[in-house]
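The record is passed on directly below:
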Amino acid sequence: MIIEVLKSKIHRAKVTQAELNYVGSITIDEDLIEAANIIPNEKVQIVNNNNGARFETYVIKGERGSGTVCLNGATARLAQVGDIVIIMSYAYMEAQEARAYEPILIFPDGDNKLLK
């Protein structure tokens, strides 16, 4: 049996930009996506802690070290600058593998920088 499990999570990142007039997606600082083992164009689910919105999009690599978390296109309507979001990616695994799998959890600081 194949099941879908949490692969990676960027927990409590701050939205730094919301660009409505864009093709779509979420732009995330390369440091954060690399640490979370998320790759450009990967599908992610986003939960907005401020308003309860939950939505899916794909990742665009942002400038390394910038702290960027920018919602683009229609998703820009689902958050405001300063909102706190949780960004999650999932993977399909055999149930046995999933039992042993430990997701990668990233906890950025208030500026979306990796804690040392």
In short: Residues 2-106 form a domain with the Barwin-like endoglucanases fold (CATH 2.40.40.20). The helical segments are 30-35, 95-100. Residues 42 and 75 are 16 Å apart (CA to CA). The mean pLDDT is 96.
